[in-house]
Amino acid sequence: MTIYNIDVGRPFLRNLAAGIIDRFGGDPIAMGQTVVLLPTRRGCLSLKEIFKQKASEKSLILPRIYALADLEQEPILPGLPFDIDINPPIKVISKWQRLGHLTQLVQQFLQQKNLCHTTQAAYPLAQELATLLDEFYISNVELTKLETLVEDEFSNYWQQNLAFLKIISSYWPAILEENGLSEAAQFQQQNLRFIATHWRPSFPVILAGTTGTRPATAELARKILDFPQGMVVLPGFDPHASSNVGPTHPNYTLSQFVSYLGGPAAKIQPWREVPITLAKTQILHQAMAPLLTATDHLPPLVGSAPQIILIPCATADEEALVIATILRSVYEQENETAALITPDQGLTRRVQAYLQRWDIEANVSAGTPLSETVVGTFLSLIGRLASDMAITDWIALLKHPLFLKGEDRGSHLGRVRQLECEVFRKKRGVKLGDSHLVPEPLRAWYDGILEYIAPVLSPPKNCLFPEWLALHLEVALGLAGPSLWMNNDGEVAHTFLKEIQAEATAFPPMSWKDYAALLGRLQAQVSVHRRQGIGSPLKILGTLEARQTEADVMILAGLNETVWPQAIDEGPWLSNQMRLKLGLSSLQRRLGLAAHDFCLGFSANGVYLTRSEQHNGSATVPSRLWQRVQTVLKQYQLTSPEGAKLKALVRQLDQSDTIKPGIAPQPQPPSHVKPKHYSVTDIERLLRDPYSVYAKNILKLKKLEPLDQPLTAREWGQLVHQVLDLTFKRHHPREGAAFVEAMKQIGRDIFTPYLEDVVVKTFWWYRFQQICDWIGQIPGLADTAKIATEVRGQIELMIGTQAITLTAIADRIDTLGGGKYQLVDYKTGMLPTEIDIRLGFAPQLALEGLILKRGGFGALQPDELNAVYWELKGGLDGGTIKFLKDYGTLLSEAANGLEALLSYFHGEGAVYLSCPWGEEKVKFNDYRQLARVDEWM
């Protein structure tokens, strides 16, 4: 029995290759016969590359290198007998078939329990069951053991779970047997056991890098130790650590593996005889000890101090930029390599984005989910097609680069923009099928698009998955043509869809909506890898792929709790107590494996550890791994200032040497372009924010309304104004209760198109009814002689030699009799303050009164005039009334102020400033971005 170990802190594959050369390099025949088994294909490729580098220095015959992942699929090795039937004549169930059958079973269970049993509800549960099945098969635990759990020991909640789990303990094996199918995980373990049973090689066999977490792998390892020249090389085992460490310790899984192999830790030999223990290895062993040793008991470090640099960053974005900067510095060094290891995919994407800033591509192991690629988003958008499709999704589909790719894209996008501006941004509630609302010049083009997508706009009620997929692809190919499959993501999508077309027959019948949601979930499980990074000296890896990586610089990133190590999730089915009783591994062991992966990352000459102190605005907790290493480094006084220097450097990347404050815009348009017509609202805008008048009335710019924007306070006010206008036009308050009921009925007609909105139905409609009741109780309102609403008026003013027209639309003008009139203005928001009214910032009622006094509202000629605000908010009070004080003086001041204001802005050199009184004086600033307010205010 020969068990070896390569300690943490040393490059595993490089030492493995050197040890093989030391043993067999002098005998080319033995070297060529040697078989090396590694867990992953990536490890095999890296080891071959190392041997090729060695071969450039000295002529070598490479050993035969195999990945256990490949042998699980097809057990073909030199020396295996070929006269034995390796695989039984049972077909392995495909991933998609399996999910389909499980979804059907879950759906039937939910239906029996009178729960939501749509495919959308059943599929996530089926996925969880598939994961649990894999764990049972990999751990070599019989599914029937689920039925041995004693019910009285667990709560009612867990007993319901156990009833649900009968799907896999009782029904699932029967389905496999009935269809003559076998589980993929069973098949893989069976192949490894076949090798362990029938392989008897006389040449050297080296199993390296495995932790023996799978029973079949552990069995193969034990058989290899019985071979005449069989060897097992452990990755990062600490033979001096206690064998009684808990499952969260990095040595725990390997200790169990060693015990299973039958070799005491004391007899494990180093793979290569090395003169000294690395200081880095000492630090890791000390940091991962069950209890950190006090400072005065630390043994002295042997050898030179290691380069371990901790960089705590303020944010995840800063962490990504620091990492990208380190990778760039390595990239610029000839023959240097670097690897970023992190389980945080969000951080990975950030780092990639920063590297692309410098046109640097890294070799990334994770890939991009198909659902997030160009082809994947195109298919997803088509999947959302229906008569009630969100307009934002419809516009996104029309603008998608694959949509009508063979057509003239310029003309197509021009039509889409015109359609968007003239239809979908102007009218609320428009559906994609409302072609009658499309302008005539675009009608034929738009109808042609609707013909393309007609099959899915009114789909059948329920179909099988392959039928929906065929319809989906028919529409997709009609819109995109063969270009759909051209690029890398297209090739992956084509292979995936072809495979699933044949294998997804087991899914239950479903609606188009359920199908589209299911396809999106399935696409998310397929990865598309970037080809550009192949061969790059920079690697970005997950913790699993990085176990046997080689690099000159290693960056271990995302070292926060719940990221590395990840938070333990018991899952929806079994508690940790249940798992242990069934014979499954403890969930705590995942923490130990995460710590082991962390230790293996210290194999380079330079090691950087990074974390972010904040993520999405919330404080983070440093990883227990980070804290342990940090504590030991402080005890040895090995903290490095390089991290602070790097952070200072990256913070300068986007900073200018000189900061030049922005300058507020000061447009001075010539007199001939200035407006000759103003509304009362324009005057208020001219007082509060002259720049908006310049942009709107002179530059003729208008803000685009958002697509599918939620209803806002502005719409609430418009609805209330519209109801009151129609009510007072058709009815008079003297009708009493009938007047109030008529107002509510008109309100129902006006509000009905918006009652699907939960805010309107729950709040606005209730508040509106309170307003109606309040109006019906206003004293003296029934005595009003005549009520005019939405009354248009205008007057002409002479400003110097220029004639300026001032217009207004009064909410209401009440004729009280005896030459008395009253202006009423409805306010559904906040009432203007007394100060704003007197200073002219709220000039509406004053200017309307001025127009009325000067005969601008036709035959209405007041002898006496007052003005009042109706505050219409609903609530317990319904509303309030506020009369303007000293209205005659206010009218006189308004006339003088209006003339002064227009004289200035129609004079030479008038400056249209943005927010001259501060942003708080501007109610709705549609031109804030155009004025670049944030640059100078």
Briefly, what is this?
By secondary structure, the chain is an alpha/beta fold. A hairpin with a 2-residue loop joins strand 19 and strand 20 (802-817).
What does the main sheet amount to? 7 strands, mixed
Our estimate of the beta-strand percent is 5-15%
Low-confidence stretches: none
- Rg is 38 Å
Mean pLDDT over all positions: 89
In DSSP terms, counting alpha (H) and pi (I) runs of 4 or more, how many helices?
34
- Total strands: 23
Report the helical percentage: 40-55%
Instruction: State the separation between the terminal residues, measured CA to CA.
Output: 77 Å
User: Which structural category fits the helices and strands?
Assistant: alpha/beta
Tertiary shape: elongated
Overview of this protein structure:
The chain is α/β, with parallel strands linked by helices. The chain contains 34 helices and 23 strands. Strands 9, 10, 11, 14, 15, 16 and 17 form a seven-stranded mixed sheet that branches. The chain has a six-stranded parallel sheet with strand order 3-2-6-7-1-8, with helices on both faces. Strands 18, 19, 20, 21, 22 and 23 form a six-stranded mixed sheet that branches. Strand 2, helix 3 (41-57) and strand 3 form a beta-alpha-beta unit. It is elongated. The mean pLDDT is 89.
